[in-house]
Amino acid sequence: MAYRGMTFGFFIFIDVAFTHIIKNMEKKADSPRKQRHPRPDWLKVRLPGGESYNRLKSLVREQNLHTVCQDARCPNIGECWGKGTATFMILGEVCTRSCRFCAVKTGMPPEYDRDEPGRIASAIKKMGLRYAVITSVDRDDLADGGARVFSETIHRTRTACPDIRIEVLIPDFQGNSESLRTVVDAQPDVVAHNVETVPRLYRSVRPGSRYRRSLDVLVEAKRMKSRLITKSSLMLGLGESREEILEVLDDLRNAGVDIVTLGQYLQPTRDNLSVERFYTPEEFEEYRDYAYQIGFRSAASGPLVRSSYHAEEGFPLNVRTY
Predict the structure, then answer these.
(1) pTM
(2) Which of 97, 85, 177 is nearest to 137 (CA)?
(3) Residue 160's Cα: distance from chain center in Å?
């Protein structure tokens, strides 16, 4: 599938996006709630707390910011916030898609906050971060998918923190190459886009997305800037097979992806997909070893690994990509 720009008129696009939202909200509402399976011991984490955690929580609240740590109910929030790191989520807290693994709110978002990029930059400076991760909800209601807000956030952050390394975890922008170019031209150090699951499960897990389109985002980003580091992530436990996992790793490497992460899917609420299987730490180690074997620059694989978990460890701070 070619990576192509937007071809429909904006108002037609909005109508299609809104219809998609309604259909997926109805599907989620009609889905029977399944009993959650008890988690094995290796998935148990400490309750969040401590001085750094409370300081960051206060900062996020005072600046009226959103983090994927909170909105997606990440199990590592206590550890990451305790170390003074966070993944900032721009463009609001309402997503235009309805991925069935995700706890982020779904619907038609309000107007985005034009002062948000400056507040993000201010918060990152106050935290004294050397490495920042910025992501967003999907904004299919915006003509550029929010690409200009990503660009402004990157520029404002670099102005406030000249030595910062910036990773952006971006949506697929509905295959709009101009939006992707806007983000790449803003010179992030790492562009991440998650495939999340295997192709066979996309219709039930990510009904608003396409596996091939996600691969195209990663291929095109690298084509636009060869020195750019690209990254993707895969959740396990949704019903995929070992062969399918290895095939996705092969696809990502063939797409030129440098960094890959694999983690256990955990059902965030009873309205989300249930866990089909819990993988052992040893199985995650096997997939990590395979990733290195086929040439990934960095691979993190473990039950509690998430896309931006210890993100700075996969990227050398003395390297510039622009």
Answers:
(1) 0.81
(2) 97
(3) 24
